[in-house]
Amino acid sequence: MFVPLLLKWFAAQARDLPWRRTLDPYAIWISEIMLQQTQVKTVIPYWESWMRELPEVTSLAAAPSDQVLKLWEGLGYYTRARNLQKAARQVVADHAGRFPERFEEILALPGIGRYTAGAVASIAFNQPRPILDGNVIRVLTRFFGIDEDPHGKEANQRLWALAGALVEVASRAAFLSDPPPASQMQCAGPNSMLNQALMELGALVCLPRQPRCEACPVRRSCVARREQRTAILPNLAPRIPISARQFVAFVLKHRDRYLIRRRPAGVVNAHLWEFPNLEITGTGISFVDAARRVLGAIPRVLTPLTQFRHSITRYRISLEAYSAETGARFGPAGDWLTRPEMEALAFTSAHRRILELIPGGAKSAPAKS
Q1: Under the phi-then-psi rule, with left for phi > 0, alpha for psi from -120 to 50, and beta for the rest, what region is 189?
Q2: Phi, psi of 306, deg, nearest 5
Q3: What does the alpha-carbon distance between residue 346 and residue 270 come to, in Å, rounded to a whole number?
Q4: What was the pLDDT predicted at 187?
């Protein structure tokens, strides 16, 4: 009864999300990549802006890379954006600009793994392909009472097999007589609905902490609920300890221009823009010494501008920024740009927060920190 109960629940309870109003595999693919490591409420405005500016796979393939990064600015994990464009160009080269329908061809695109390929194939084309993301793992480990670490080899294979079996059940079932959950929702069929229902149940009901078991449509057969183990399942491996890092940044102004530089290829946040900065973790050096090292000289007056903390993966980063006006251009290699010119560029999330403190620019999309 798991599958029919879940499908019936989804038909009544699913959220009206913009990417659920289309069966366009390109639009669904973009949403799935954006939703990795990012909350739905954050993704919605980004997805809508992206689809307005790059509505087709061919427009993404042809777009300047700076435009792609700017549209992604604030979502983090920028390798996702670069892989999106690589994959779009491969679709143009290998599939004449038509997003592939076969699972194996989707899986062969850069930046697409088994989960994303299965999501696109099932949601856009109603193919009986399983999916396994964090939400689905939580639902299945609790419902079936799987004690092992779900990311371990044997447990993970078992979860993929269970997800596949559920999709097979859905593919053989008659489609629901209930209407789609939202008036504008597009649904390719029961495979599409089942995978979305699994993800939705994990997102809305089978929560990591304090799951809403009373609202779960399959609660009567759930092993974790029956055995009171929802608090310990899934049995995830311990997280990597958080490491602290310290940075100092400098906002140099000469007349109406500011010094910024672009991060090189092959590093975190590659090709994004930032103000001159230096990591001082564990060095004990002062901001004055940091200025000498990163700028080559100490400005006459360094004024505290801001300080804040933010996180990137397992790092907890504290950043102090100082401003200075100079009578001449000096410092490391970079570009001296006006505030409006900087506004058009994609900055790292931390340095976008610094940029927002400089007068003269329109407020951009909130940075994710």
Answers
A1: left
A2: -165, 165
A3: 11
A4: 79
DSSP for 161-174, please give it. HHHHHHHHHHHHSP
* Residue with the two structure tokens 């990163």: 294
First to last CA, the chain: 42
- pLDDT at residue 319 greater than cutoff 60: yes
Catalytic residue set: 32
Which residue ranges does the chain devote to CATH 3.90.79.10?
Answer: 243-355
Judge whether 46 and 75 are in contact, CB under 8 Å: yes
How would residue 201 be classed by pLDDT, with cut points 50, 70 and 90? very high
CB 188 within 8 A of CB 125: yes
Helix (H) or strand (E) holding 279: strand 277-279
Asked if 3 and 173 touch (Cβ cutoff 8 Å), the reply is yes
Mean pLDDT of 200-209: 97
Indicate if the pLDDT at residue 369 is higher than 60: no
Span(s) in the chain for CATH 1.10.340.30: 2-226
DSSP 347: B
Contact present, 25 and 102 (Cβ < 8 Å):
no
- What residues contact residue 111 under an 8 Å CB cut-off, 6+ apart? 33, 79, 80, 83, 84, 86, 87
Tell me the pLDDT band of 183, cut-offs 50, 70 and 90: low
3-state secondary structure of 299: coil
Q: Indicate if the pLDDT at residue 293 is higher than 90.
A: yes
Residue 15 confidence class, pLDDT cut points 50, 70, 90: very high
CATH architecture for the domain at 2-226: Orthogonal Bundle (1.10)
Fold of 243-355: Nucleoside Triphosphate Pyrophosphohydrolase (3.90.79)
- Return the pLDDT at 360: 80
Task: Give the pLDDT of residue 361.
Answer: 63
Q: Which residues pair with 320 in a beta bridge?
A: 248, 307
How far is residue 130's CA from residue 115's CA, in Å, rounded to a whole number? 8
Q: What's the confidence (pLDDT) of residue 366?
A: 38
